[in-house]
Amino acid sequence: MSPALPGHLVPMHCHSSGEEFDTQGSGLARVNPDLASERLTASFCVPSLTAVLDGGAERTRVRRAVVDVIESDPVFSRENQYFQSQNERYEAAVRKAVHLRKKMQDMGWSEDGPESVYIYRALSGDVAFLLHRVFMRSISVLGSDKQVAKWIPLATEHRLIGSYAQTELGHGTYLQGLETTAVFDISTQEFILNTPTISAMKWWPGDMGRSATHTVVFAQLYIHGKCYGVHPFIVQIRSLQDHSPCPGVIAGDIGPKMNFEHIDNGYLMLKNVRIPRENMLNKFCEVQPDGTYIRHGSQQINYFTMTSLRISLIADEVILPLMKACTIAIRYSVVRRQSKLKPGEEEAKILDYQTQQEKLLPQLAAAYAFHFINNYLHELFNKGYKEIQGRNFALLPELHALSSGFKAMISQYCTSGVDICLRACGGHGYSLLSGLPSLYTKILASCIYEGENTILLLQTARFLIKCFTAARAGQPVPPSVTYLAAMKPRKCPAKDKLDFLSPDIYTEAYQHAAIRLISSTAAKLQDLIQSGAERHEAWNQCTVQLVQAAKAHCHYITVKNFVETVEKLENTAGIQNIMKHLCDLFALHGIFSNAGIFLHDGYITGAQMDMVTASYLDLLGIIRKDAVPLVDAFDFTDKNLNSALGSYDGQVYQRLYEWAQKAPTNKQISPAYEKYLKPLLHNKLSKL
Amino acid sequence: MSPALPGHLVPMHCHSSGEEFDTQGSGLARVNPDLASERLTASFCVPSLTAVLDGGAERTRVRRAVVDVIESDPVFSRENQYFQSQNERYEAAVRKAVHLRKKMQDMGWSEDGPESVYIYRALSGDVAFLLHRVFMRSISVLGSDKQVAKWIPLATEHRLIGSYAQTELGHGTYLQGLETTAVFDISTQEFILNTPTISAMKWWPGDMGRSATHTVVFAQLYIHGKCYGVHPFIVQIRSLQDHSPCPGVIAGDIGPKMNFEHIDNGYLMLKNVRIPRENMLNKFCEVQPDGTYIRHGSQQINYFTMTSLRISLIADEVILPLMKACTIAIRYSVVRRQSKLKPGEEEAKILDYQTQQEKLLPQLAAAYAFHFINNYLHELFNKGYKEIQGRNFALLPELHALSSGFKAMISQYCTSGVDICLRACGGHGYSLLSGLPSLYTKILASCIYEGENTILLLQTARFLIKCFTAARAGQPVPPSVTYLAAMKPRKCPAKDKLDFLSPDIYTEAYQHAAIRLISSTAAKLQDLIQSGAERHEAWNQCTVQLVQAAKAHCHYITVKNFVETVEKLENTAGIQNIMKHLCDLFALHGIFSNAGIFLHDGYITGAQMDMVTASYLDLLGIIRKDAVPLVDAFDFTDKNLNSALGSYDGQVYQRLYEWAQKAPTNKQISPAYEKYLKPLLHNKLSKL
Q: What is the ipTM of this complex?
């Protein structure tokens, strides 16, 4: 079968290297022979797998077209990104955002067209005004028709830049605790906004530090001295004439972060800032001129907005970075040769060491597993959205629980996966030029934003405990948790290591483990309460185990979904076979790495765990052969990877050297020489 | 008992905050009341524990004196570090290095005086010329008396700056594979050095990118066309008149890295660079004028140098960063309040949530465990050094195995611990101003440098397998592995959860697990070889399990040493009690988190694992009460922590706000406004 390299991936800017010592580069596009040879023996057709991942060849075509347009425009270049300061990154990101609007108009791409999902991806997220979009979305969802009609056109045309000011210095996850106040003044028909304490300062909102002219501020609404809880208000914070802060507004940038240098995360203090009554977003609740507070319709849709946000970030912010890290680390690991496997032979490719396979290949399998579970979550979400449009909110609790748990579980898993890829590349992985450090420092944030992971897992756990109790009482439960009602066999039936390549065997094991953890924690909770503990204290004493249970549930659903996805694949082009191997690897890696969970009640015995280990290690050797084609199928361009180690041609050392020469540290003689070194070193003799 | 706050820790530069909204600061040193209250209930005397950690009150005094001198000198300030570019960091580090030499002269501190160990620590490693010191050490160890007499005085006086060029672009861990050549030219009595391929370029050496005038180059020695292996040569790379590269030398900086911005890690290419015959370091081997190659004495001392380097970095580069991260995260976790534990009550300190305790307190226990194992390793090393001076090399294999395994195990554990601390601080942990991101990005490198961890663990495993075979054959083995000879009971005797607070019970469990993993892997290796696999291939197929076995061994020794240390402590000032709790926590956390290893053969049953879990979770609540005093005892100054979240006074929000205002992003109007935003936003009306 032909590995059929996608034409647009062949980089034209790379240089020959090989035996000859050539620091100038010949301009030839030559693939490192160690990498090239990996592509000759693929057991499956790479473009076919790419099409499966994209959801069809037509979408592959659209994606590549978007990528081509973005990457051929120098404004969107990320070439010198690793050398830029926070100020430079911000300036470039604003330039890109402004240019992007023009580009989309020129290309006829609309916000909801087929191209839209690929634009941000092609930019690697390196663009400003993302919170401006959240500003717009919040007005669309929470604003009245009149508010939408006033603000959305202005925002669309970039005649104002918006932000979304929810988080405060002292409050993130616990929204009820927000301290900013909005007091209604009947006499002037205005709200008076204030930041009453330092911890009430808005802190972290993107686009707010330097760009935004407006923002949606979440504040405690007071009317006649009575608090009505947190509500959203549109507040102008900077002048449209000269961008200076509005009266009573103190705003700025929160300074350097581990990544997101291109975003001006900001702070905001408000001192008696007055806004008209019309600036409270009032689709769901309204303050009338006489101070009467009225609530319209359901607020459950807000709940759904959070859910949709969590699901929407998983693909681009979490799974793609892991796919990129795998691509970089696996390509590098067949170019890098170090030490000898067999005395007297050539040095070995490091991917031929079992320990290196054991680091990287499970991450590769996880990237596929999460890609497929993400599809599952999106389907579920779309179904839920239709129901909600028909005013049926029955799916919400399950959707909320799944979106919370999966956002947490996948972001934690993928963050750890990127970290493993980085370390597996040794010293060169530690260079920013490898692309791995910035992937890591960025994906790490996904464990924290849009709900801190532990809190999210506990929300899932609360749902699971509730469903478990209901299921055991014979009451109906949502589809994803019906398994909790089942009473299953108490022992794994596997007899030899090949049995563990049976999806039924390992899926049952995951299901059993999830049920055991949920039921034993439910029992502990019950015991504590029956022994007299207060409910909240009993809950707190179970939270370590509740987190374990929620993870086990998500892990189980992921394995089950991978199995079902593989079953549905057609076995043309060798796709189903290789996906089956990856599915097995993902499942057995999970059992191998969390052995205690499966051994605890003897469901899997020690002898069976040895079989798991044997099958798991065997799979590493099998998938090793297809490792490079499996990352090629992700179809990242060199520009998108932006990695000296991970390029398609594998000219690792040449590229590291070329890129290093462009570093600012090589562009100037450091003042340190004249000031500190010369007085010590200077010698009439140049040589000792 | 009085918690007796060490006076020099009370910061004089902090500001009041509290209820009143005060952005100016009153200049009063007021400790956040939530943090202050934590210090009133300590179960032990903090200064006494500090003295234990320092190895005596006198050493505490010396350490604090060094810290005071360094921190009161503005040249050594790290105040704006988080805002500086790579160029600025480098310049500051060179300035500090030059100033430090003068300071040490002024203070009468010698390189081997009692102060020396604390200087680098007080600087937080933020200083240049560390590789200059390795350059000097390598000449001292590998050079003849004549070479030492020539080069050491020049280097000591900073009349040259040295570096140490071993690693190449294509070779790190596998030194035999180095490609740089040094060919002896009899006619001129010179060595001709060359970089024959791009992968042969020296890459990574510190101080080489911009500072060094000289370096020790490791190259394959050729005489009359015959290769004699890798040897060290002193090579001048830059002019002493104007710092320009010497003829045939191409050198520069390798560009941005994940951390170490202050260090000019460099690259070096050599094209027919000639150096005199006298520049080969020739204490152990020499090339005579006629080309005769002579080897003197033993080279085993080199082996010892690597060992000593690995042990020496553990304290400052690995354990201290974890201690700092714990200090920051734990202090922040009693200041930060979020959500409610009990309905109707005040929001809870986040350290009162079980999940937060379970993240942070095991890291705290690990910091203590590793502090004590580091003492053990140093004692062993000092003993070994004495033996070696007496030409007895018998201890070397054990020392090598221990230093490799512990460097790997501790660096991996502590890196993961710092990561956990960072994430446990939520969004604010992600700000560079928290100090946590730079601790993480720096400690991560310790998993890679001085031997990549997986390779080091496999070296330990090789030693263990050898000793296991010897022990089972009744042959003598080194002291740390005599336990491998023992045949132990096959079941853990614990009957209830309190039994797991018995050090005998858990130490036995660790010992049993280590023996099982080593013996089962030895058996698998044997099986594979007997089934006809070649030795090297059989080894490769066992490496995943060998790594597990090596870690289990190091974990066991760490637990055993913690237990023995606690037993030796006097129980005055409540020290022994609290250390016993930490020791229990460290041990039970390890069993809880690696349950599979202990459950595998039924040594610990599922029911017993539930007892472990119960005791483990109980301990969290006990240690929670002393968490703040336990980090106070590490005795870091605010300047040393350099963290807006971790200062002694707990004025977290105030400090975040003050520091953010100093960021360069707030010091200029971005050109982005004039260029990109103004054309869009400008409006005759300043307000919408």
A: 0.95
